[in-house]
Amino acid sequence: MIHIVTGPPASGKSTWVAENARPGVDLIIDFDVLADAFGAGGSRTYDQGFARMVQASRRAAVDYVLKSDHWQGMSLDAYIIHTQPNEQQRQRYSEAHAQIHIIDPGEETVMQRIEAERPAHLKDVALDYYYPERRAIRRAQKKAEEATQWVYTSDGRRVPLRPRTSRRWG
Q1: Which residues lie below 8 Å from residue 50, measured CB to CB, with a gap of 6+?
Q2: Which has more pLDDT, 105 or 141?
Q3: Which of 124, 126, 35 has its CA nearest to residue 84?
Q4: How far apart (Å, rounded) are the C-alpha atoms in residues 143 and 147?
Q5: pTM across the whole model
Q6: Which residue, of 19, 27, 28, 50, has the fewest CB within 10 Å?
């Protein structure tokens, strides 16, 4: 059986898997565990290149599980921790007959746990989980920011490039 364990950051997904998976028997795909295996050393703050490498490895492992027939009718289970699968990913999980487990102790508990135990950027991830429209707004803002061209002033400040007007003075 394939188990997809979802929920916001710091909701207890890894704890739930640890309580339900059989150590040394079941397969567990967890971004943070993979990051530690690649040398993160318990840190939950990763630079972009490192995070992309871990994501690619995680994606390969998930693809293998979803495409393989090893999980049908065997006494071996696969647990995939996935904070917030999109529509296409949920469809793939459904086609693989995966069982979905949503772990969510509530926004207040999650935010307290993040404050106490996790990097600050996970607050945004948790808020995006609880308020999906916020995520769309943040993505649009990021796209707009990426579209902005920047120049550097003589004193080293970065400022947005403003196109010159075609108006002639004089």
Answers
A1: 35, 38, 40
A2: 105
A3: 126
A4: 6
A5: 0.78
A6: 19
Other C-beta atoms closer than 10 Å to the C-beta of 5 total 25
The type of residue at 120 is A
Cα–Cα distance list, 19 to 14, 23, 26, 79, 94 (Å): 9, 10, 12, 12, 24
Does residue 7 contact residue 102 with C-beta atoms inside 8 Å? yes
Percentages (nearest 5) of helix, strand, coil residues in the chain: 45, 15, 40
Whose tokens are 């998930």? That residue is 62
pLDDT digits (tens, 9 = 90+) for 13-56: 999 999 999 998 999 999 999 999 998 887 778 888 899 999 99
CB 14 within 8 A of CB 110: no
Q: Which of 136, 141, 110 is nearest to 123 (CA)?
A: 110
